[in-house]
Amino acid sequence: MPGRERMFAPGPGRQGGGGPVRPRTRRIQYRWLPCKSLVNRVSGMPFQWSINPYRGCTHGCVYCYARATHPYLGLDGGLDFESVIFVKQGAVEALRRDLARPGWNREMVAIGTATDPYQPIEGKYRLMRGILRALIDAETPFSITTKNTLVLRDLDLLAEASRRAGCTVNISIPTVDPGLWRQLEPGTPHPAQRLRVLERLRAAGIRAGVFLAPILPGITDDRLHLEAVVKAAAQHGAAFLWPGVMHLAPGVREWVFPALARLRPDLMPMYRALYRGREAAPFYRESVLRRVEELKTRWGLAGPRPDGVHRVTPPAGTAPSASGDAGRAAAPTRPPAPVTTVPVAAMAGVTALLPMLPRANRPAGPGPATRQPGTAQRSATAGGLEQPARAATRDRKPAGASGRTPAPGRPVRPGHRDRRSRGVPGQIALPLPGV
User: Do β-strands 207-215 and 241-245 pair in parallel, antiparallel, or remain unpaired?
Assistant: First the structure.
């Protein structure tokens, strides 16, 4: 089906990234995907079920682990994932059937584990409003993970869900650096826009925070970069902050590594040494997460106050932001999980990491330079109870549902305006806050 043509052409990036990560033109196609059951059973996660109203995502985040889901439809996890989007036909009706089953126990449902449920096409088909209404009527608690400002369209339903069933909104903000944002997340709203969304959600009494994920080794893992996100999260009233280091599922590495090589070729020997499997080496992952926990404590995000009220607590000698959260009510949050410490010297970015790698895997020459922080917009980071599912292949259909993936159906009718810019259908434009 013919779609609207778009081109990604960002400005200059960070050091070593002298141009756009993906300077290509690609048509966006939308196709129907018949849906018999919308909920997927999940194991080993803080939630029991997942919902993804779409397959594929036009946000086009370079690092997205959900790219591994598109090969099951006979498509690749690269450009096909962000340019061939499947809309689940009959999604709301299927969900109501799922929730009406005698064995439904109102367990936690995570929405947006393998797609962004508020990507621009949602502005046309409005599947999320029907999904939220069905969950509220069934008094089923849920969480939503998104980067898009369109979530504010459903503020009324989210407020109702907070009262009747319980809901959490996770705003994904892995970076507040404008250069990195343009290169790593070409189809998403500006990080400052997402921070304003966080403020609006918190002002409405909704439990909302930020996912500081994925953290990219050598690119977004130094203390200055991490603190810029944690500080912004606190200043914009985040109820929690959850960090996560980049995860590479099978089928994702083949796309992510070439993209990162175009951005920072000097870091690729380190990436190959760190990522011998799906996860980064444990010593590195634990060191980075420990650093984030220290920053959360420094900025008052380590845990809720006993009275359930979240307040920004700037470190000594730092003036609190005028947009702080003093006096704003927040739902109680679970205290952060302890982070195992390992005998690794405190790292100041990649430079300190290199001596810990096997000598054969170290880059030749002086090694990668520690990234220079760009202009940090105010941002928020989230660490909540719900982590995104690692891959759709871990999901299982509930009893009685077909485990087969339906064949792609007829394409969605053409004519949908779906551009990667602010102020177009599918996104709500917000004024950028001051820096």
Answer: parallel
